[in-house]
């Protein structure tokens, strides 16, 4: 396909495709477009966001089958070929010969690139090495001072994954951990406003809107969905991205509820009861299939992240051995065991 046709056809599945680089669009047209059309015929939408357990299992199955097919020793050699320079040529030849790109993505309605990154995270032995020691943190600061954002190089020097060293550095670089100051809160609000305005302006320009940036109306969903937290972290300067996200959600919750304490006293009991009932009625197999936005009115007019946080707290505090249970088992336990107790208490 020529580039313009590729953009046009991909836009049906990836609404923001025109913001991507030309090389990324060409790769996506080659790796994903046929797959996307196949999923569309089956009535399966293209997914983004967190991977479900079912998708993780499918990735593991695809990798296992590809290893069996090619005789490559292990997943690390397959996904981190540069770590094995002596075997690199052979492995790359086998990957090309047995159509690695298609095989790894089989049965997963997502862009290939996201599936590949997820596979690398699952199978990277450097990704599960526990907490960082004080010595490792000091080394990380030192390597960053020398190599900057070259996370690939730093990860090799520390025998940790790229993602791990990048996220850890984000946490330890001159970060405050106490209560937010007024100045920090203002910086956060300005940073969020700035990224939302930029995004809205781009969308307005695409739709040939004549509205000025100042007069753009903001859809409520844009206030708390898929914000670029690493960019916001940089603008705030003194907090890492997870702190920024948590603080922003608490600001939104306070504004949307006009400062009411929705999860206290009898209101809190009623919110828990409503949340358990609604989750039970949904009959979903995985937490990633839950439409959390639809559940927000079970607690009150609150952001999705607030509902998710309250469910997590409920699960951890009320369900014994919850880590070993499937999502439906957790919901069944809450409905059958915890719900009657909460209703009696109310």
From TrEMBL:
Myb-like domain boundaries? 124-169, 172-252
What Pfam families is this protein classified in? Myb_DNA-bind_6
| Annotated InterPro entries | Homeodomain-like_sf (IPR009057), SANT/Myb (IPR001005), TTF1-like (IPR053078)
Name the GO cellular-component terms: nucleolus
Q: Report which superkingdom the organism of origin falls in.
A: Eukaryota
Query: Which GO biological process annotations does it have?
Result: termination of RNA polymerase I transcription
- Could you cite one Gene Ontology molecular function of this protein? chromatin binding
Give the protein's recorded name: TTF1 factor
- Organism for this UniProt entry: Crypturellus soui
Q: Which gene encodes it?
A: Ttf1
């Amino acid at each position: 396909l020529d580039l313009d046709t590729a953009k046009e056809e991909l836009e049906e599945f990836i609404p923001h495709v025109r913001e991507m680089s030309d090389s990324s669009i060409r790769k996506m047209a080659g790796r994903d477009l046929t797959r996307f059309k196949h999923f569309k015929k089956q009535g399966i939408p293209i997914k983004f966001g967190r991977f479900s357990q079912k998708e993780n299992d499918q990735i593991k199955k695809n990798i296992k089958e590809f290893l069996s097919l090619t005789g490559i020793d292990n997943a690390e050699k397959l996904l981190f070929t540069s770590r094995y320079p002596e075997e690199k040529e052979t492995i790359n030849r086998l990957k090309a010969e047995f159509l690695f790109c298609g095989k790894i993505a089989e049965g997963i309605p997502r862009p290939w690139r996201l599936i590949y990154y997820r596979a690398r995270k699952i199978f990277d032995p450097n990704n599960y090495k526990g907490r960082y020691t004080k010595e490792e943190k000091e080394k990380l600061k030192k390597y960053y001072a020398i190599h900057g954002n070259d996370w690939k190089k730093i990860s090799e020097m520390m025998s940790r994954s790229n993602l791990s060293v990048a996220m850890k550095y984000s946490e330890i670089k001159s970060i405050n951990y106490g209560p937010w100051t007024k100045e920090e809160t203002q910086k956060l609000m300005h940073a969020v406003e700035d990224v939302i305005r930029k995004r809205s302006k781009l969308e307005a320009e695409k739709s040939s809107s004549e509205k000025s940036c100042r007069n753009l109306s903001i859809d409520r969903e844009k206030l708390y969905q898929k914000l670029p937290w690493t960019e916001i972290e940089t603008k705030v300067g003194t907090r890492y991205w997870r702190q920024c996200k948590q603080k922003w959600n608490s600001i939104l919750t306070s504004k949307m509820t006009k400062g009411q304490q929705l999860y206290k006293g009898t209101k809190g009991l009623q919110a828990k009861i409503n949340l358990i009932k609604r989750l039970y009625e949904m009959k979903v197999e995985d937490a990633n299939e839950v439409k959390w936005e639809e559940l927000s009115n079970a607690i009150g007019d609150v952001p999705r992240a607030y509902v998710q946080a309250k469910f997590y707290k409920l699960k951890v505090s009320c369900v014994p051995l919850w880590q070993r249970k499937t999502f439906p088992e957790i919901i069944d336990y809450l409905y059958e065991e915890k719900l009657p107790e909460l209703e009696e208490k109310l």
